[in-house]
Write a structure and sequence with these properties.
Length: 254
């Protein structure tokens, strides 16, 4: 037994949506834990760059649109060329959108499904051959508590369904590749203070509702999610696969 099992020394990670929010917090703690990371998102973020560089972490940022079906193969190839292997894939990139179902147009529906569901499948499919060759690997998907329970505001039928799909893809793939020493897990965050949700926290109508609906009475931080991601991706979680870990301040206990 050793605390070293919580570290990622020598591991190589590919993190989608790594330029801000939860993805950036994961990149930060992975860097501290000794991993090298390829981060991807559509836009570069100079502040994130300065933060990670300032801490001396070994990482590479590649600008890419995850909804382009060619992106996952390209990013996995880049990771292998840059660092020689891929130990961890963190499928974190995602978008949220709400609106009553009769008004929710196809464009928004397709954006939710391609970003939150199809790219998770495609990145996983692209990473698996290298993980198989290596004889080990970890895939970590970022789902949501809203894949378990309706959240506030309501009218997030497509988003909630997309995250439930992520949870079920996690379990299905975990069972498919478990015998090959490849683990697949997910985290299901509740209300986390990031750009995605910040509009709600500052909204005088939603803010008290969100707090009251969360037994812990506060929002979570990206760092609190990243801590759990680190655990699930580390050797310390070597017998954990097919799990969806709720990080929601107790929201879904109600
Ligand atoms: P942010 O909006 O801060 O981050 C979303 C990330 O995804 C950004 O890095 C963004 O970069 C990237 N992204 C979005 N679309 C694309 C795309 N087409 N191609 C490439 N990258 C893309 O939100 P969070 O950090 O909160 O979200 C991270 C994950 O956590 C998401 O999957 C979200 O659904 C999930 N989640 C968040 C919760 C919360 O309360 N915040 C709760 C539950 C789950 P860019 O826009 O530059 O491309």
């Amino acid at each position: 037994m050793s605390l070293g099992q919580f570290r990622l020394d020598g591991k190589v990670a590919l993190i989608t949506g790594g330029n801000r929010g939860i993805g950036l917090a994961v990149a930060e703690i992975f860097g501290e834990a000794g991993a090298k990371s390829v981060l991807t998102a559509r836009r570069d973020n100079p502040e994130a760059d300065a933060l990670l560089k300032g801490k001396g972490y070994d990482y590479d940022f590649v600008s890419a649109d995850a909804t382009d079906p060619a992106t996952p193969e390209r990013l996995v190839r880049h990771t292998l060329e840059k660092y020689g292997r891929i130990d961890i894939l963190v499928n974190n990139a995602g978008v949220a959108s709400h609106g009553e179902t009769p008004d929710f147009d196809d464009e928004r529906l397709e954006l939710i499904l391609s970003t939150n569901v199809a790219q998770v499948f495609r990145f996983s499919r692209a990473a698996l051959p290298a993980m198989r060759r290596q004889g080990e690997g970890v895939i970590l998907n970022v789902g949501s508590m809203s894949g378990f329970a309706t959240n506030i505001p309501q009218h997030q039928v497509a988003y909630n369904g997309s995250k439930a799909a992520v949870h079920m893809m996690t379990k299905s793939l975990a069972s498919e590749v478990a015998a090959e020493n490849i683990r697949v897990n997910a985290v299901a965050p509740g209300y986390i203070d990031t750009e995605m949700s910040r509009g709600g926290f500052t909204n005088p109508e939603w803010d008290p509702v969100w707090r009251n609906a969360t037994p812990m009475g506060r929002y979570g931080s990206a760092e609190e999610v990243a801590n759990c991601v680190l655990f699930l991706c580390s050797p310390a979680a070597s017998y954990v696969t097919g799990s969806v870990l709720l990080i929601d301040g107790g929201y879904t206990t109600r």
